[in-house]
Amino acid sequence: MNTAALFAMIAVALVAAISAVFLRESRMKTTAMLVTLAAGAIILIRLLPYLDELIQTFSALSTASGVNSSYLGLLLKIIGVAYIAEFGAQICRDAGEGAAAMKVELAARVVILLLALPVLTSVVRSVLGLLA
Fold first, then answer.
1. Over pLDDT 90: what percentage of the chain?
2. Are residues 43 and 98 in the same domain?
3. Taking phi first (over 0 means left), then psi (-120 to 50 degrees means alpha), and beta for anything else, what does residue 102 get?
4. What angle do CA 98, 101, 107 make, to 5 degrees?
């Protein structure tokens, strides 16, 4: 990612944030929330090519190191869940729903633990095999 792309995304976020503040002061809370959501969507769409590059790089590293590619897939899923949950929680907070944000974060933690369960099971079996 070049710095110009990063600055463009920051500019979108700043314009949306300033617009949302003015809209909230004008008692247009729904419009303010929609502006914030639209900015988030624009930033996510602009990030997609960079995410693809990141996945390809991780895949090449996995192949070069001989690490099982299923672990790479699992790692990417966990990272994806974490980022999506954080995005969802921030949207809830922006809407003034802190309790809903906390529940989104809790749900993400449970999903991440469930995704990591096969790796954890494998590690425990390996340790038990060494001890036996």
1. 35
2. no
3. alpha
4. 145
The token duo for 63 is: 């192949």
47-71: per-residue pLDDT in tens?
Answer: 888 888 888 888 888 788 877 777 8
The total of structural domains in the chain comes to 2
- Examine the domain organization and report whether 35 and 80 are in the same domain: no
Query: Which of 15, 34, 67 is the last residue before a domain boundary?
Result: 67
Rounding to the nearest 10 degrees, give the CA dihedral for residues 14, 15, 21, 22: 160
User: Are residue 76 and residue 124 in the same domain, yes or no?
Assistant: yes
101-118 confidence digits (pLDDT tens): 999 999 999 999 999 998
Same domain, 38 and 94: no
Cα separation, 20 vs 28, in Å, equals 9
Report how far apart the first and last C-alpha atoms of the chain are (Å, whole number): 49
61: burial class by Cβ within 10 Å (0-12, 13-18, 19+)?
A: exposed
Report how far residue 63's alpha carbon sits from residue 72's, in angstroms, rounded to the nearest whole number: 10
